[in-house]
Structure formats: structure tokens, C-alpha cells
Amino acid sequence: MVQNPVDSRSRRATYARAAVVAAGIGIASLLHFLTPESLILWHNIFQRLYYLPIVYAAACFGWRGGLIAALSSAILYIPHILISWHHMPEYAMNQYAEIIIFFLVGTITGVLADRERKQREKLEATTEQLSKVNRELQDSFEQLKRADRLSAIGHLSASLAHEIRNPLASIEGATGILDQPDISEEMRKEFLEVIRKESRRLNRLLSDLLDFARPRKPEFQPVDPAKLIDSVISLVAPTVERNGITLTRRVEPSSPFVRSDPEQLKQVILNLTINAAQAMPGPGEIELAVSAADGNVKISVKDQGSGIPEEDLDKIFDPFFTTKENGTGLGLSVAHQIVTQHGGTIVAQRNPDRGMTFSVVLPAYEARSAQAL
Q1: pLDDT (tens digit per residue) in 241-255
Q2: N or C: which terminus of the chain has fewer CB atoms within 10 Å of its end residue's CB?
Q3: Hey, what's the torsion of the CAs at 316, 320, 322, 325, to 10 degrees?
Q4: How many angstroms separate the CA atoms of 360 and 346, rounded?
Q5: How buried is 162 (Cβ within 10 angstroms: 0-12 exposed, 13-18 middle, 19+ buried)?
Q6: What is the b/e burial string over 294-307, where b = at least 16 CB atoms within 10 angstroms of the residue's CB?
Q7: Considering Cα of 209, then 214, then 215, then 219, what sign does the dihedral take?
Q8: Domains of the chain, first to last
Q9: Per DSSP, what are the bridge partners of residue 259?
Q10: Is the overall model pTM greater than 0.70, yes or no?
Q11: What is the pLDDT of residues 272-313, one digit of tens each?
């Protein structure tokens, strides 16, 4: 039969503790027998030495261990009292009274040790139970995530059928008209633009879907958020300015770098900026800002649009949830996924006057390290 290593170690530890108790009682008794009777002060000191193994036995083995250690001490000490101080009855009675205290100390200490041990075992059992419940909750959460993923795929199938069918129908209709021999140059340009527009729409839908379904692993490097802001502004400005929208930049001086994938973080900021522009039915201002506080860098996009209803704020990062008529509901979900992979958070807040502010908060990267690379 194979012996359990844990049980073997526990048994060896028990034997070692018992040996310490026996050695302590033996040493105290031996000192009594080797010390002359005239050195009463030393005998009083040696008598107190019995308390050490008694208390240790009580702490290790409970009240039974304390009682056995007290009894062993008494058995070894009483003969010495009888031999050495039979001619000093008063002093001998004091020593017998001390033996009674041995039993009291051993018993009381053992009871307290047993109570503490039971409390500790109860606490350990409760901790283990809580850990088990936590593991079960984690398993259940993973199952819910898988179920939610399957539900999302089912939802996606229905959404894709609808989202792809409409642009395909537009493309098919446009190509049918372009196939007519007597079409004017103006109409030809118009329907070619329809084909381009619907193709871009399909490409955007499939890109968002792939980004959500198979997110690329970030390639981290030190990145200056201010440069990302400038890059996004240069990309978006020509389009939004035609609608009377102004892009403003507010970056704190010497703002720290962040450790991120520059393309993915740029995708997040670009997505938030485009969403902000689409949320503004008329002229207004979109502010892109970078600030630092408490070891973090905050990149925010503030618009003057119609805003998001309060009841929808906790759902805007869910896959396929959208408040846009032609939205896929994947843009913010992909952004949330990217920011989470970067160890940051993304939050949405309603502005006091109008519009929304989306903020991406990432841990700051030391500027010195970034400049040295």
C-alpha cells in the first residue's frame, strides 16, 4: 500500500513535537535532581521551566496534550519533592500546590488552543467552500460567455443576411441600369457612386465583424497619444468640415506615452471620432483631448450631438447593439475589446449641456523609456 506523503510528513511533525515536550520535561526534572537542595532559588526557577513544555503541548495537542504533559511533569517532580524536602513540610506543600497549577495551565491553555484550532478549521472550510463556489461561478460565467457567443453568432447570421442583402440589391440594381446602352453619362456616374458606396458599406461591415470575431493580438510599443490625435484629425477633418463640424485638439504639455498597439489604438480613436460626427445632425465642435492623472493617460472624444439615452448607456458596448438606423452594432464593441486588451477602460458619459464624451483610460508609460527607444 502506497503511503500518502502528506500523512507521513504530518506524522513525523507530530512525533517531533512530542519529542520536544518530552525533552523539555526531562531537562527540567534532570536539573532538579542534579542541583543541591540548598540552592532553593534555582529549584524555583527549574520548577517554572515545566510550564514551557506544558504550554507547548497544550498548544500543539489541545487540552489532552496539556493534561498529559502536566501529569508527566508531576510524576517526575513529586519523587524529588518527597526525597529532597520531606523535612520542610511547608515548602513541600508549596511545591505540591505548584503541581496543581501545572494541570490548570495545561488544561486551560489546551481548551483555548482547541477552540482556536476549531475556529481556524472552520475558517479554512469556509474559505475552501467560498473558493469552490467562486470556481463554480467562474465556470458558469464562462459557460454563459460561450452561450452568449453562440447567441451572438445566431444574431449575427440574421443580421448579416439583412445587412448584406440590401447593399447587394442596390449593387445589382445599379449594374442592371448601367448595362442599358442609352444611359447618360450623369446617370452612369450616379450609379457607379452607388456601387462604390454599397461596396464600402459591405467592406466596413465585414471588417467590423472580423475585428470582433478574431481580434488581432496587440503589438505593444511606446506610443505618443498626441500624435495619434493629430493623425485622426488629419484623416477625418476633410470629411466632417464639409458638414460644418470643427475638430479641436486639446493636449496637455508633456503628456506621457502609453504602451499600446498604435494601429489598434488609432482605430479606437478614429471610430469614436466618426461616431461623434455621425451623432451631430448639424454644425458643431468635436474636441479630441489628452490628459494625465494618477499614473494614467485619458484620451477623450467630446461631441455636441444628440447624445445617448440614459437607459442605453449600459448596453452601448454590447455586440450588435446600435442606436443608428444603418449601424452594425460592432464598432463600439470592437473598441471596448481593444482597450480591454491594452489593460485600460473605455467609458461613455453624457455631457451637461448636450452630446457625449467617450474616454479611453490607459496606464501611462514612462516618457524617458519611450524616448530612449
Answers
A1: 878 889 999 988 878
A2: N
A3: 170
A4: 4
A5: exposed
A6: eeebbbbbbbbbeb
A7: negative
A8: 5-135 (no CATH), 145-213 (1.10.287.130), 221-372 (3.30.565.10)
A9: 222
A10: no
A11: 888 888 888 888 899 999 998 888 999 999 998 888 888 777
